[in-house]
């Protein structure tokens, strides 16, 4: 992995152009980006449902980590290789060579409805992208996935506290949780250099995208990155485990 972009598992930096507030695309995910996933379990509260006690909490038991594959936007002549992490804990996807169609590339603020979440995700991806050894193993990529989920489902920098997202207690998960917290705390001290967007499809897993900003840093908007004189560098982030299954508490 280089100190600038996460790219060890897929080769050279991917480039893309995007236009408009939403762009149709297909996604193909073929394998774990760092060799395997890591089993994790815990509980979360959906951000769309107000927390009203344990009856509103859902348990999860999944494989976490980075995935590799490609995505192809309408109008592009060739697919773009990428590494991706998941956004959701409620939805599924499966490995395969056949493209998953019907995705839309939407802006981060439009998707999350929270500037704070968009900023936290941008800082997290910036820290990982600028530190050469931060995420280049299955263990580290699983910790980054936990950090992403915590950002989506919670408001703090710990995967062990708060009312939104909590990793289960226990020795096997302790080191993983420690590293996820380390990533979240480190990210809080950097300035984001990425614009966040999401590959979204109703009824299936959504995938996080982070594209290098052009020019001075600016607040995230509802729009996906505008095309410029040169293609935008793409850092793709997003995926849950193969056959991820939702399990309510």
Structural category: alpha+beta
Assign an overall shape: globular
Give the terminus-to-terminus CA distance: 38 Å
Q: Beta-sheet strand percentage?
A: 25-35%
Number of distinct helices: 4
Helix content: 10-25%
Signal peptide: 1-24
Protein name: PEP-CTERM sorting domain-containing protein
Keywords: Signal
Domain Ice-binding protein C-terminal: 223-247
Top keywords for this entry?
single chain; 249 residues; alpha+beta; 22% helix; 29% strand; globular; PEP-CTERM sorting domain-containing protein
Question: Can you describe this structure in just a few lines?
Answer:
Keywords: Signal. This protein is α+β, with helices and mostly antiparallel strands and 249 residues long.
Structural overview:
The protein has four helices and twelve strands. With 249 residues, it is α+β, with helices and mostly antiparallel strands. It has one domain (14-248). An eight-stranded antiparallel beta sheet has the order 1-11-10-9-7-2-5-6. The chain is globular, with a radius of gyration of 17 Å.
Write the SSE topology.
Layout: E1 14-16, E2 22-32, E3 38-45, E4 57-64, E5 67-73, E6 80-84, E7 100-107, H1 108-112, H2 115-130, H3 138-153, E8 165-167, H4 171-187, E9 194-200, E10 207-212, E11 232-236, E12 247-248
Antiparallel strand pairs: 1-11, 2-5, 2-7, 3-4, 3-8, 4-12, 5-6, 7-9, 9-10, 10-11
Helix pairs in contact: 2-3, 2-4, 3-4
């Amino acid at each position: 992995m280089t100190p600038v972009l996460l790219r060890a598992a897929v080769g050279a930096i991917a480039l893309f152009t995007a236009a408009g507030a939403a762009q149709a695309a297909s996604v193909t995910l073929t394998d774990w980006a760092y060799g395997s996933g890591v089993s994790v379990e815990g509980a979360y509260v959906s951000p769309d449902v107000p927390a009203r006690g344990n009856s509103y909490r859902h348990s999860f038991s999944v494989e976490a980590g980075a995935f590799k594959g490609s995505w192809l936007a309408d109008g592009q002549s060739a697919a773009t290789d990428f590494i991706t992490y998941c956004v959701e804990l409620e939805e599924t996807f499966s490995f395969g060579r056949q493209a998953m169609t019907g995705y839309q590339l939407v802006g981060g603020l439009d998707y999350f409805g929270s500037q704070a979440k968009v900023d936290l995700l941008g800082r997290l991806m910036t820290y990982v992208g600028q530190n050469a050894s931060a995420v280049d193993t299955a263990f580290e990529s699983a910790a980054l996935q936990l950090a992403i989920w915590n950002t989506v489902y919670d408001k703090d920098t710990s995967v062990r506290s708060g009312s939104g997202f909590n990793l289960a207690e226990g020795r096997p998960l302790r080191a993983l949780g420690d590293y996820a917290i380390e990533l979240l705390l480190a990210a809080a001290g950097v300035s984001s250099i990425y614009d966040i967007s999401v590959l979204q499809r109703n009824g299936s897993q959504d995938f996080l995208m982070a594209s290098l900003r052009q020019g001075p840093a600016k607040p995230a908007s509802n729009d996906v990155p505008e095309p410029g004189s040169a293609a935008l560098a793409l850092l793709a982030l997003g995926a849950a485990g193969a056959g991820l299954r939702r399990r309510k508490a």
